[in-house]
């Protein structure tokens, strides 16, 4: 190493002139030391000279000193000598030929460290003459027992083939044996060596076509099980080795049908399973496409299918940054929805949903609904959720919005998200001019099919609220429909008795029957005359006329901050607020009258921008109890990747200081839904953790309704709190798993 004082003097120079002065003095001192021939300090002086050379100053006078140090028997001298040779010598100078004998002797010594130095120098400055002279020694080292020397020998052989292609025959036999290596460096170097041999020698190309099955097996092992975890990058198993094998397969399969047939299945597997959310996966996929295009691939790997998949993947990644440019390809993307290939149609669906905006929502929704009617079962949930989200964001009119949701519920009601019922009931309730239209449409749909549970629930709710409009005169916006009171009651009873009806669905139907007793002309006698009911007059029928069965008031989905503050102030004056420890529930219970509980309108879905735990209010008679609002703890964002965000909000109930309630909120701002979302947590042993059920397992795209989950942590010792989170989900056609630790929780959460 250079003397510390030299480095300090050079770094301490304030101007370039001062630096040159220091360098000139030191070079003069180094020259004098070389002339004196001090063997003990020669390597130190050369190390100083190499440092000067790296700074850009002339150091050619040290070339002969490098040769002397290489010939020295001391390892410290050889190490600096070989380093100097690699830096100061090249093929343009005859001096480099003088180290051939020294390299040959060192390769034959059997000392691995010395052999490694010699091989590195040979692969760096070795000329064609040196390669001819030392090829035999390198070929012997390819089969040495030590992996350290074999790896460097393989790389040296690559350099020799590039310099002298005529040496190919020497290295053919060892390569077949080296393919059985498990050492990553040796295997990667061997694949590179075989690639160089095949590109430069037709005989080598013919020879190595026999090892195509072995190469296919190596690549299959990488794709399926992972060759070595320490060489994986961003979840892609050893992408460098995969790329090198794919390049070699492309050379071996070109214009050779048998080799191409052997690798076809594997290429399809790599193209389908590679994670393209990272650059490493994109590199592997790019090489796979080049290999497929350059070999005699099977029909399943023909260029149109794979080219479309790659194009859709590229457009999906581009849509966030340049939406208008991708819009030009919308007709082609829609055509890909009908492709028989499952992976291609899924990718086309994701891109189609990302392309929906206010200007094309009608046309795109019509195409997506047509696809929903015939799409595979595994795509129905994603397609239905995407249509509902697009309609919610870009609906041109309320009637169009209602019609769109009804068609989705009719076509794929069992595959819609949990909040579809609440959203539609709220939409209908807020459109007073469409009450008659909605109840007639829903009644007709219910009469045709009672198997779609979300549709049945919305229809029962709407009939219970607006059943009187169903029996009135015809609606201008629908076809004439004559309905009798007995037919309405019979249809609701059919829902009650159906084995397909869920308990929640029966609750909707029962509530509708109760409300119809105050809506229809026959009054409460209709309910008693309905099939299966009794003729006894009980006090309950006197209550049916009360205000508990009036039409529900409209519940706004969101309000301004001033309105929320005003409502909060009024609530504090009349009621005491308690923070619920239950997680938000997306699908509401069956509607109830106001006298039987809270407001009967299904509760609106939580806001995606400001999620908060629901608040329940106790009657004024309980206001004598002193309940204090918990101190606010700042929210914390702990995860963000490709549009998926994970935020934590904290509440510590004052009556239980050792209890911490954490609401985990997942929001998705990307263009594709996040499905199969699972969040798991772990805490230190001094704490107790209870995970409540999440509100769903699908995080809708483009800032839709978030998924929330409640964590109850009991920390009696008030120990510093840490969280370890594990997220698993599917996004953009790929399976993702993230494990991370949250160490920056606010001190208010545990102190």
Q: What would you say about this model in short?
A:
One of its GO terms (cellular component) is AP-1 adaptor complex. The protein has 751 residues and is an alpha+beta fold. It starts with a helix and ends in a 9-residue tail after the last strand.
Q: What does it look like?
A:
The structure is a single chain. The protein is an alpha+beta fold and 751 residues long. Among the domains are: 405-520, no CATH class; 636-749, Immunoglobulin-like (Sandwich), CATH 2.60.40.1230. Helix content is 54%, strand content 10%. The protein is built from 31 helices and 10 strands. The strands form 3 sheets. A 5-stranded antiparallel beta sheet has the order 3-4-5-8-7, with no helix packed on it. The protein has a 3-stranded antiparallel beta sheet with strand order 6-9-10, with no helix packed on it. The model is unreliable at 528-547 and 558-630 (pLDDT under 50). Residues 598-610 have a biased composition (Low complexity). Residues 555-612 are annotated as: Disordered. Belongs to the adaptor complexes large subunit family. It is a peripheral membrane protein.
């Amino acid at each position: 190493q250079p003397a510390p004082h030299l480095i300090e003097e050079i770094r301490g120079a304030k101007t370039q002139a001062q630096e040159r002065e220091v360098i000139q003095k030191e070079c003069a001192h180094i020259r004098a030391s070389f002339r004196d021939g001090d063997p003990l300090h020669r390597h130190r002086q050369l190390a100083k000279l190499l440092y000067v050379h790296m700074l850009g100053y002339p150091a050619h006078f040290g070339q002969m000193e490098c040769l002397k140090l290489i010939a020295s028997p001391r390892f410290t001298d050889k190490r600096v000598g070989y380093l100097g040779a690699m830096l100061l010598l090249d093929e343009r100078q005859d001096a480099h030929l003088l180290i051939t004998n020294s390299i040959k002797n060192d390769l034959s010594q059997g000392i691995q460290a010395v052999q490694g130095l010699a091989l590195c120098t040979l692969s760096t400055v070795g000329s064609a003459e040196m390669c001819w002279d030392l090829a035999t020694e390198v070929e012997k080292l390819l089969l040495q027992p030590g992996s350290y020397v074999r790896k460097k020998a393989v790389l040296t052989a690559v350099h020799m083939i590039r310099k002298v292609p005529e040496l190919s025959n020497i290295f053919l036999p060892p390569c077949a044996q080296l393919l059985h290596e498990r050492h990553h460096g040796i295997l990667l170097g061997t694949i590179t060596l075989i690639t160089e041999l095949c590109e430069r020698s037709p005989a080598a190309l013919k020879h190595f076509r026999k090892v195509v099955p072995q190469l296919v097996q190596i690549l299959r092992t990488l794709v399926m099980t992972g060759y070595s975890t320490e060489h994986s990058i961003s979840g892609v198993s050893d992408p460098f080795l995969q790329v090198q094998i794919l390049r070699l397969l492309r050379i071996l399969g070109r214009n050779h049908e048998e080799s191409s047939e052997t690798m076809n299945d594997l290429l399809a597997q790599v193209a389908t399973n590679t994670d393209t959310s990272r650059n490493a996966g994109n590199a592997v996929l790019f090489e796979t496409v080049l290999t497929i295009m350059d070999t005699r691939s099977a029909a399943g790997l023909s260029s149109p299918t794979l080219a479309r998949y790659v194009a859709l993947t590229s457009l999906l990644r581009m849509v966030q940054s340049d939406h208008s440019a991708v819009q030009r390809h919308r007709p082609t993307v829609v055509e890909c929805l009908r492709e028989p290939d499952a992976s291609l149609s899924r990718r086309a669906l994701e891109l189609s949903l990302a392309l929906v905006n206010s200007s094309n929502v009608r046309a795109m929704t019509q195409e997506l609904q047509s696809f929903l009617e015939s799409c595979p079962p595994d795509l129905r949930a994603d397609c239905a959720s995407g249509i509902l989200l697009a309609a919610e964001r870009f609906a041109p009119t309320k009637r169009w919005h209602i019609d769109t949701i009804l068609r989705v519920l009719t076509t794929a009601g069992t595959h819609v998200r949990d909040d579809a019922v609440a959203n539609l009931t709220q939409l209908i309730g807020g459109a007073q001019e469409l009450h008659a239209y909605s109840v007639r449409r829903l009644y007709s749909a219910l009469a045709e099919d009672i198997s779609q549970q979300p549709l049945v629930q919305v229809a029962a709710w709407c009939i219970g609220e607006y059943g009187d409009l169903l029996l009135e005169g015809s609606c201008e916006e629908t076809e004439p429909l004559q309905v009798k009171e007995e037919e309405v009651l019979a249809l609701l009873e059919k829902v009650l008795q159906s084995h397909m009806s869920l308990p929640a669905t029966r609750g909707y139907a029962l509530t509708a029957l109760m409300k119809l007793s105050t809506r229809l002309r026959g009054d409460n006698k209709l309910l008693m005359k309905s099939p299966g009911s009794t003729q006894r007059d009980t006090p309950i029928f006197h209550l049916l006329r009360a205000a508990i069965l009036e039409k529900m008031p409209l519940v706004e989905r969101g309000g301004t901050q001033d309105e929320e503050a005003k409502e909060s102030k009024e609530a504090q004056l009349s009621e005491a607020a308690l923070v619920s420890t239950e997680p938000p529930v997306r699908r509401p219970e069956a509607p109830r009258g106001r006298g039987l509980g809270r407001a009967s309108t299904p509760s609106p879905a939580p806001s995606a921008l400001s999620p908060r735990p629901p608040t329940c209010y106790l009657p004024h008679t309980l206001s004598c109890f002193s309940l204090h609002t918990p101190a606010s703890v700042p929210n914390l964002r702990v995860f963000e990747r490709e549009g998926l965000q994970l935020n934590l909000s904290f509440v510590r109930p004052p009556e239980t200081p050792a209890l911490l309630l954490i609401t985990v909120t997942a929001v998705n701002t990307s263009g594709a839904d996040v499905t199969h979302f699972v969040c798991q947590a772990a805490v230190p042993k001094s704490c107790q953790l209870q995970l409540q059920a999440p509100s769903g397992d699908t995080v809708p795209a483009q800032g839709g309704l978030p998924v929330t989950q409640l964590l109850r942590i009991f920390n009696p010792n008030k120990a510093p709190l840490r969280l370890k989170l594990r997220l698993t989900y599917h996004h953009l056609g790929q399976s993702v798993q993230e494990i991370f630790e949250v160490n920056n929780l606010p001190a208010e959460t545990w102190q």
